## 1
Amino acid sequence: MTSKSSPSTIRTVAERAGVSVATVSHVLNGTRHVSDALRARVEAAMRDLDFVPSAIARSLKQRQTHTIGMMTPNSSNPYFAEIVQYVEDHGFGAGYHVVLCNSNDDPRRQSAYLQVLAERRIDGLVLVPTGDDATVLAQLDGLRMPVVLLDRPLAGMRFDAVCNDNRAGARLAVQHLVGLGHRRIGCIGDSPATAVSCEREAGWREVLAEAGLADQAPEVQYGHFTAQGGFDAMQRLLQQPQPPTAVFACNDAMAIGALGALAQAGLAAPADVSIVGYDDVDLAHWVHPALTTVAQPKQQMSRLAVDLLIERIERRRHEAQTRALAPSLVVRASSAAPRVAAAAPAL
């Protein structure tokens, strides 16, 4: 057995097995047929010598590492945690390892991690971007690898993107509340505003305008896309002279924070204020009351993002695609008719 100071190489394996260096290389890389007898001798020599093939060297030869990157803006957000799980599961099933990074919604950290991933010679990247569109596009411009944007598309992009129809999803949520008889319907959005939050806010405004309720709506309250952000925004809504009877939160984390603010104020959903979220994270089913929310097809989006990325990696497609999948409304216990409901306007 070799000493630790002299690690085994392909050459020492070849000498031990009594074969050529080329034969060992073919066994390792599967680049040519090797007889069962020779393969057995090479594998026995590798075991005897504690030989571990270099993944980096093999990737340089094959020009592929079978590793993809995945970067999200907030790993503590249950929505992104579920997205990561689906991407990792589908990537692993397709023969790819996944390297995970968290930008923490910081464009500078995102830029640093993009450089790290490029140096690791990953084959491609699934990215939930953070920062303004021009900044992200500039950061991606120098990357020599396929990129698929997930959840947050960019204006004027030339990359594949997978998202859901955020405006349509918000419309489902607010139409549900209007149909229950609510007139003063508040909105809690992300700050600084992401394109996703802006689209959801736009859907909220559209439905209120169509129902003739725009002048009764309180100002949008903004906070970070977190439970704390939703808690703080809900407290501000409750302090208004005419608090809303229903609130659309632009993600489930904020909706759960809003439920906490109601409880602290001695109020409850849906008896005092109805709450509707967006994402349908697993936790939405388990909070009390169970959260009415807009369900994104998270598993389908994640699998599609990985499939599009692998198509790019394997050079089976060159044109950019944007896929916007349809959301759906999941009605649970956090929404109900207000205590005094007027006739619902036609939508």
## 2
Amino acid sequence: MHQKRHHKKSNPLVPLTVVFILMILVGLEIYLLFFNNNTALLSQKHEKNSTVRTGQQTTKLTNDAQQVKNFNQEVQPTSNLAKQLNQKLEDGQFIGTALMIKNGQIILQKGFGYANFEKKQPNTYQSLFQIGSIQKSMTATLILQQVQSGKLSLDETLERFYPNIQDSQEITIRQLLSMCSGLYQKSKPETMMTDEAFLQYGISNAIMGTYGKFRYDATNYYLLVGILEQLTGTSYHTLFNQTFIQKLQLSHTCFYNDFLHSNERTFPYEKKEDNNYKTKVADKPILFNREIGTGSIGMTVGDLYLFFSHFLSGSMINKNTFDSFWTPKTLEKFAGGIYMYQDYIRAHGVEEGFETNSYISKDKQNAVILFTNQYPKNQSYTLLGKEVFDLLVT
């Protein structure tokens, strides 16, 4: 007798449930796949943008670093033009260090003669010279940065800072920068003092000549230094170090007291009886130290070019501020430590046996910088520098 089999009736919901679960899993997989792909794309895009930004920054840093590096080498003349200009300096019995740039390339950077004749130490591309009044262009830059930040106005008067100075209610910052205030110093200190004491001496001994008339006198820049210190609460020495030496990587730039102890310093000589090194000009620290903000800096030719390169590029002073001061009215006149021409700038300094001449095109592509530690009396290398610059840009 056969036993009767009983079949369990299947539940129709089971297959549907399985299908439903499978659909959820597939959908979840598709979602995750889509989400991950988009995340990856976004991540890649972000990385790409970050790389571009980083790359741009690196390129800029590399360019700045490379520019500094380029000046840390001697460049002998190899092109016909460089050889011609080198010969012109030799014919002019030039002693010092020269830098020449043509179309953005250094074609000559070398020394001529001796930095220390007694020790037969030659001038080189690393030699330090006193730049004299060219420092005024750096002080002017610091002032214009205050104008740019809105803390100062070019047409603001001296009365805000030094109300006791004669006609301070009429004298503007613009006039001080251009030495058109009429002020001059009736006497100069003859003994060593601190920087602050030198500065206060210069300011307290400022008297009025003819208001509004150009008169080349350091008093104008002593006052600008005092204004800087009032506005920032920082010493001029510190401001200079932070703004120029550190930010622009000017590793061959220093104040006078450091210059005296540098192995790369040059010694000035006076030419007599056709002897280029007849008389050694003695160091006179007081004459440099009292020139607060106006003439107490030692530099190499390369560092000076680096400063002016930033000065002209707008990285320190923006175009609006730059153009608000150097207007067509200031062309070929002293203003802000330089002489501005149509296509180039000129800067000049003379101090105790040192002379500096600088000619740089406004696009920074062409330059002639001559530093000398032999400043013959009644003679200057300014004309020689201009002749060389004219040949360079022709």
